[in-house]
Design brief:
Helix content of chain B: under 10%
Number of helices of chain A: 3
Distance between the termini of chain A: 86 Å
Helix content of chain A: 10-25%
Distance between the termini of chain B: 16 Å
Oligomer: heterodimer
Largest interface: A-B, 52 and 36 residues
Number of strands of chain B: 4
Strand content of chain A: 25-35%
Strand content of chain B: 35-45%
Radius of gyration of chain A: 22 Å
């Protein structure tokens, strides 16, 4: 294994970074972890983990001319912006400590060792802050993807874990936003805004209501024609 | 499905940093006004990277 340590900076403390990750739960429900979103989407990692190159196991991540290694962004706002993308809406925004070999870029890092410190925020598909995690309906071999849900949308979805229960199953000491030690404020004013009427309803329920209304109008028109 | 990529930008530097469990506790010995020495304990949080001069490579956010 090629493990040359890059020359250059030698900070005395790990970097703080922010990233998006999918929450995953083991098939037996006893263990939890995280999965990447694009290149690392098939890789599950724990609270403390070392990166592995998915293309070439003969070099140690991050290799300069390879895309391997963990990734994070320096700024929380950049991670929040990334989370607005449609395909990332069910991801958790997590805070990490990046260490080991690293390559530092303008907006983030690529690095070899990661320690997940906290779950900063997540959102239900209805737009409210996520307070629990439910089966997303997708997964990897041995792992179910979990999606954040709010209390309004949680009914009838399984398995349901609170964020704290999820954190406990990771086997590490992960802080959760809104817990006893939440750290810096994590909620924006958007979180407190009332949602539009029906925003929390499932699409099927809304569609059913609209079809029922349409039927009622058709019945009314038919009655007038008959009369 | 389309995979959206966010650029990390140009390379600034590379290096190595040791992993530590959490915040680093630093003990410093200081001399007070009466001449006696005291040990001051400071907890330094993990650092945030500060971008510096640009280099040449681009990268993408993955996972």
């Amino acid at each position: 294994l090629f493990t040359r340590t890059p020359a250059g900076e030698r900070p005395d403390r790990p970097f703080t970074g922010y990233k998006l990750a999918r929450a995953v739960l083991s098939a037996d429900g006893t263990r939890a972890g995280f999965a990447g979103l694009t290149l690392g989407a098939d890789q599950v990692y724990g609270v403390v983990d070392d990166a592995a190159c998915v293309w070439n196991t003969r070099h140690a991540p991050p290799r300069k001319w390879c895309g391997c290694g963990f990734y994070c962004l320096h700024a929380l706002a950049d991670a929040q912006a990334l989370g607005c993308a449609t395909e990332h809406r069910s991801a958790l925004l997590i805070e990490v400590r990046a260490s080991g070999r690293y390559i530092r870029y303008e907006r983030g890092l690529r690095y070899s060792r990661q320690r997940v410190r906290s779950i900063r925020e997540c959102h239900c598909e209805c737009g409210r802050p996520g307070t629990m995690l439910a089966d997303a309906g997708t997964g990897l071999v041995g792992w179910r993807h979990l999606a954040p849900v709010c209390g309004h949308c949680a009914a009838g979805r399984v398995p349901i874990l609170t964020l704290a229960e999820f954190a406990a199953r990771t086997g590490g000491s992960i802080k959760v936003a809104g817990s006893a030690d939440p750290g810096p404020p994590m909620r924006s004013s958007l979180d407190e805004r009332p949602l539009p009427e029906g925003a929390g309803e499932s699409p099927i329920a809304v569609l059913s209501a609209e079809i029922a209304l349409l039927h009622a109008r058709l019945d009314d028109i038919q009655a007038r024609l008959d009369g | 499905m389309e995979v959206r990529i966010m650029r990390l930008g140009k390379i600034q530097a590379s290096g190595y940093v040791a992993d530590v469990a959490d915040e680093t506790v630093v003990n410093e010995t200081v001399v007070n006004e009466s001449g006696a020495s005291e040990t001051a304990t400071e907890i330094k949080p993990a650092v945030a990277a500060v971008p510096e001069a640009a280099d040449r490579e681009q990268a993408s956010v993955s996972g």
